[in-house]
Write a structure and sequence with these properties.
By secondary structure, this protein is an alpha+beta fold. It has two domains: 79 residues, Glutaredoxin (3-Layer(aba) Sandwich); 99 residues, Glutathione S-transferase Yfyf (Class Pi), Chain A, domain 2, CATH 1.20.1050. The chain is built from eight helices and four strands, in the order βαβαββαααααα. Strands 2-1-3-4 form a four-stranded mixed β-sheet, covered by helices on one side. A hairpin with a 2-residue loop joins strand 3 and strand 4. Helix 1 packs parallel to helix 3, helix 3 packs antiparallel against helix 4 and helix 4 packs parallel to helix 6. The termini are far apart. The mean pLDDT is 96. The structure holds glutathione (GSH). The site of glutathione has 11 residues, from loops.
Length: 210
Amino acid sequence: MDKIVFHHAPMSRSNIVHWMLEELGVPYELHAMSLQRGDHKQPDYLAINPMGKVPAITHQGVTITEAAAICAYLADEFPAAKLSVPIGDPRRGAYLKWLFFGPSCLEQAIIDRLNDRPQIPPSSSSYGTYDAVMETLAQALAKGPYLLGQHFTAADVVIGSGIQWGTMMNALPERAEFGGYIERVSARPAAQRSFIMNQELYAQLYPKAG
Ligand SMILES: N[C@@H](CCC(=O)N[C@@H](CS)C(=O)NCC(=O)O)C(=O)O
């Protein structure tokens, strides 16, 4: 098997992919980068991702960027972990919807709120309104335990990461649906392993950050 090379900066969006890799349980080679040091803007990394952003993976000679796309790719590439919903399964549409909802709706709504950006007309905003995003998510999670019922998928890694981050930044409403979901996803052994590994890596890379 061709090993996955994972370009990672701890405590960033690449934590999403780190958690995903831990869920898969497949071997990977981690290339740790310091954003403070500007490793992601060096020519060797720009040759991998011209956007100069993490995460990125290289697998079988191909580089993939964008956290949600990487999660979708990995879930399909390693079906034994059952983190994907296969083509032909009636739940596939909902699975893809949640994968895309993460970066295009949830993340954007949180970022706009954190930056006090004024609401643009909902009809031209990629996510409509903050309240619509939160209500839609809460309704989906109320059915639980995961977005697709009993089946934990890569979409939960993406949305779970977004909800964890938004909660940490005090940018999500306090709702039982979110609290319960965070408890469930963060109790997963892969999520816990990833959390500890990233804390350790962060302390090594940024010793002065405390
Ligand atoms: N759309 C990208 C966003 C990636 C992104 O913005 N990564 C941030 C870390 S959270 C980064 O690399 N920032 C460094 C920079 O832009 O200088 C994804 O979802 O993967």
